Amino acid sequence: MPSEPLSQKEIEDRLRELPGWAFENDRIFRTYRLGTHFAASALVAHIASVQQELNHHSDLTLGYNTVLLSVNSHDAGGVVTEKDFALAERVESLAPAHGAS
Asked: Could you give phi then psi for residue 34, rounded to 5 degrees?
């Protein structure tokens, strides 16, 4: 069953709880900066594991020492849903362990 799209106000309210996250083009996104390429790669692997567990996947871009996470819900027509914020919150909880800022 598809998730219900969140309203613009709901998205804005939820983003206040997630510093560093933004909304654009029907996606929420954040770039994490890490100390090394290895740390960034490890964060990508950890995010992939969480996505598999939640059965909700994002676009991940690995740079030298950065990770860009961009997410929306394909099953809801490519808009932002509660599932996207659940993923963002999980990533936020694990990112500090990798030294992300």
From this structure: -125, 170
User: Would you call 23 helix, strand, or coil by DSSP?
Assistant: strand
Q: Which of 94, 31, 84 is nearest to 54 (CA)?
A: 84
**pLDDT tier at 98 (50, 70, 90 boundaries)?**
confident
pLDDT in tens, 31-54: 999 999 999 999 999 999 999 999
Q: Residue 26: name the closest of 74, 68, 89, 60 by CA.
A: 74
Q: What is the pLDDT of residue 1?
A: 53
CA distances from 24 to 11, 34, 43, 73, 75 (A): 11, 23, 23, 14, 18
